[in-house]
Amino acid sequence: MSRALLMVGGGVQAVPGIRMAKDMGLFVAVSDRNPDAPGFQYADAQLIADTYSIEQTTAEAVKFHTQVRALNGVMCMATDVPHTVASVAEALGLPTIGSKTAGLAINKLAMKQKFRQDGVAIPWFGEVQSADHLKSMVAERGLPLVIKPIDSRGSRGVFRLTSSTDLDWAFAASQEQSPTGRVMAEAYMSGPQVSTESVVVDGVAYTPGFSDRNYELLDTYAPYMIENGGDLPSFLDAGAQRAICTVVQDAAESLGVHNGIVKGDMVFSDGKAYVIELAARLSGGFFCTHEIPLNTGVSTVEAAIKLAMGDTVDPEDLKPKFQRPVVQRYLFPTPGRVTSISGVEDAAAVDGVEFVDCWVKPGDDIIRPVNSGCTAAVVIAVGDTHAQALARTQHALSLIHVETTTP
Predict the structure, then answer these.
(1) Please, which contacts does 151-155 make with residues 24 or more away whose CB atoms are closer than 8 Å?
(2) Residue 242: other Cβ atoms inside 10 A
(3) CB within 8 A of 36, min separation 6: which ones?
(4) In angstroms, what CA-CA distances link 135 with 112, 130, 148, 292?
(5) For residue 46, how many C-alpha atoms fall within 13 Å in the half-sphere facing its CB?
(6) Interatomic CA distance for residues 266 and 270, integer angstroms
(7) DSSP 94-124
(8) Residue 405: how many CB atoms within 10 A of its CB?
(9) What CA–CA distance (Å, rounded) separates 70 from 3?
(10) Is CB count within 10 Å lower at the N or C end of the chain?
(11) What one-character DSSP code corresponds to residue 224?
């Protein structure tokens, strides 16, 4: 009988991981609260459980493990639930980063406090108790600052504060996105921001995923921090990249990740690398599933599956085989109600385009972007040069037409 893996979360971005696990010969069970979760159609078994509910998912996993089929590993991807994964793993005696580490990874304030304690390079930060407290922080620290919920995701409630920002509004809007009603502020550090994805093997962080984050729309949608894809390989020089990878290593050690995945939000400012956040899971946004393999020939998804199953990961398999230019960009339609969509197939046919997806449909409402989820489509293209990959991506996006009208 083949070994069994539980994938916590069956969203569309988990599908490539589910399919890869099956290709590796594993029996794959998927848990999700949505009975129509896309991942269910590829799964060997379905568990109905809220991924963000530790108790519910753990109970269903234990029941499945004892009554249906023994599980040999558990993981998640593109969904920020390492604490749920850790709980299931500990209940079943499976490989895990542990609940303590997972808890730090989902609590941005606790994470930063641990980083500060261990001397990891981070921006200044502090918990914000009220709008008046935020105002006093601004008076003391100056602008710009960033305010964010300590326990949300997908850039919800994250704002870059400038002199034109209503601080009363910013505090209330950020607090609203926190399940616990807690928010924090941190210094906004100018300089290139980078997404990293590392596989930690026996305490050593290998970082094949390294992408320049595109914030060309930062001023357009201010104070919301809207990211518009990424560019690989990075434009940063080798020294800056090594510095960032060193801080990733430091941060992974601080959190206690000895064998697992860490996804970093990094910044290189005034000649020094800093970690903004570190997630203990595979990334979303098609980074792990498409961009990294296209750029380097390395599969962090395969490595994550092996670690979840307690298998050995050869560090040689994590070294980039090449550095192919890859560009990802999103489509931001005119706000309104979607009336028609066209051009998706034409975009997919553009030379060098490796991936196109459009997730809106007629009748959906498009709003002015307020977080990373307010997009309609994505294009990922490769090229012989960055300029060629970018041109192909932009051309493909121009062919996708999402027509909207005021409802």
Answers:
(1) 151/106, 151/107, 151/108, 151/178, 151/179, 151/180, 151/182, 152/177, 152/178, 152/179, 153/80, 154/284, 154/371, 154/372, 154/373, 155/224, 155/225, 155/226, 155/227, 155/371, 155/372
(2) 13
(3) none
(4) 21, 9, 15, 41
(5) 15
(6) 13
(7) -----HHHHHHHH-HHHHHHHHHHHT-----
(8) 10
(9) 8
(10) N
(11) B
Q: Is 172 left (phi over 0), alpha (psi -120 to 50) or beta?
A: alpha
Token output for 337: 């109600």
Alpha-carbon distances, residue 109 vs 52, 165, 314, 381 (angstroms): 19, 23, 34, 36
Tokens standing for residue 210? 């390294």
Q: Whose CA is closest to 244, among 197, 314, 293? A: 197
| Residues 140-195 pLDDT 10s | 999 999 999 999 887 899 999 999 999 999 999 999 999 999 999 999 999 999 99
d(CA 33, CA 50): 4
Q: Tell me the whole-structure pTM to 2 decimals.
A: 0.95
Q: Phi then psi for 249, rounded to 5 degrees? A: -60, -45
At 47-87, the pLDDT tens digits run: 999 999 999 999 999 999 999 999 999 999 989 999 999 99
pLDDT tens sequence across 296-311 = 999 999 999 999 999 9
Contacts of 215-222 with C-beta under 8 Å, sequence gap 24+, read 217/332, 217/369, 218/160, 221/368, 221/369, 221/370, 222/160, 222/162, 222/164
Task: List residues bridging with 326 in a β-sheet.
Answer: 232, 382
- Give the single-character DSSP code of 190: P
Amino acid at 213: R
pLDDT computed for residue 371 by the predictor: 86
Q: Token pair of 127, please?
A: 């918990």
Scan for tokens 């910044």, then name that residue: 267
**Rg value, the chain, Cα:** 21
